Amino acid sequence: MSEDSIHDNPYIKVTYQKDKGRSIFSKVFIPRGTVVFVDNPYIANIDSLYKKNICSTCFKYFSETCRPNVVVCPQCNDYYFCSSFCKQYQKNETRHSSIECEWLQYFGNYFKHQLLEDDKNIVLLLLKIIAKRIHQNDSLSFIVDNDNSKNTDTNDSYNLVPRDVTDLIDHLDEYLSLGINNSETIEQQQQNPDTSITDSDMDISKLKSIWKSDFKKFINISRVIQHIIDRSKHQEILSVGIDSDGDMIMSENNDIENTIQTESLSKSDLNILKLLCKVRSNFFGLWHNGLQNNIVEYNRGGTPNTENDTDSNTTTTTTEHQKNIEFLWCGSAVYLSLSLFNHSCFPNCTTLLEYNNGENGVFSFNYTKTPLRFSIVTLFDIEPNQELFITYIPLNQNKKERNHQLKSSWLFECNCKRCELEQTKSKEIDELFNSVCCRNVKCKSGMVFPLANGYGVCRVCKDEFKSPTSINLDVL
Ligand SMILES: [Zn+2]
Ligand SMILES: [Zn+2]
Ligand SMILES: [Zn+2]
Ligand SMILES: [Zn+2]
């Protein structure tokens, strides 16, 4: 299999579906446990909370008390490596360029303490992308209509595969069409209860309110980014397609909550918003159980999978050793080709990160491998011409919770088989789903990943289980 290429992949092909856009289908029968695709991140960044504990290059965890070789960037004092080796041999997707270094210093002085953690991290991720593009002389215009999803020629898979971050789907138009003026808040709605409002009306108005407040936040973030970039004289990004009336000046006391109107967005705002929306629709949270094994796992956005399910009947304590399943959300990454895999709440594939942890738990970093290379692996046998799915969210939630999360963050309604069958056969589908999930009481979240010996392993807690002998997935 050729790395990073879907075109000559023996297992899968990209097709275009009218209702869903780009999708991945099987070309042939694929046995469960097959690695069908691998990809390296376009960009990856450690969250500010864990910067001091995780190497930016190799993602090795170092504790407060054991850091003899740790090196910090002497300019910004805000970028850490496990060793001078990792500082010297940085990777394209995590490179700490001098441009980024300068921005981090400014960011640390003026904005770091004003922003919430999540917003701070998305700013840092975007700055890293822009610094990378300046470093590589890539285009800084994100407004250009590069929407490959409009290409409906199913034979032309080359044009369906994103080759740059500009090719990623964003939902900026949907956000813009909401309008952001005179938005009613949830609190205001609750003060005026109207008994004729149905559950789904309420859901929609709640969602609109979430989307609007998200979008206001995006505008704020885009202004912060423009402010940082502007100062260090990289004017090209701020002058992309700008009219003679130019940019809005951002004042630090700007009361964005009340004053922003769609019409007042400059083209420079829209340019950064476009990039922000692309990243937000496509980034993955990087999970690290640093205290345990130096293993990085990841899930797309969402919350950690560590909640116990309320249904205790199906759980059996199959293991005496209770493993530490405290995961840190330590960073985020954008993978270009991962966006081709659609979501299902009962996916037939999972994502796995390769992380070279060396022999016997002794860390040995092999520079030829990237620690953040992901693989897509099949969880079940897949017949020819079936769609391959992954999940974007934790799956141990009920249908309402899952759909709320998908709609609020990815703006789509899930119509997967599990969601469909939950209407009529909720008990059966629950049992079927639980039978393929981790049975560790403290974890019980991951779908069990098939091993060759008739066992399966939980990708989250690493417990092993005997695979169910009679599992009938025909209903899916
Ligand atoms: Zn390192
Ligand atoms: Zn620096
Ligand atoms: Zn679903
Ligand atoms: Zn588990």
UniProtKB/TrEMBL annotation:
GO molecular function per UniProt: zinc ion binding
Keyword terms: Metal-binding, Zinc, Zinc-finger
Family annotation (SMART domains): SET
Alphabetical list of InterPro entries matching this protein: H3K4_H4K5_MeTrfase, SET_dom, SET_dom_sf, Znf_MYND
Any one GO cellular component localisation term in the record: nucleus
Superkingdom classification of source: Eukaryota
Residue stretches spanning the membrane: none
Every SET domain range: 10-393
PANTHER family: HISTONE-LYSINE N-METHYLTRANSFERASE SMYD, SET AND MYND DOMAIN-CONTAINING PROTEIN DDB_G0288495
Function: Probable methyltransferase.
Protein name: SET domain-containing protein
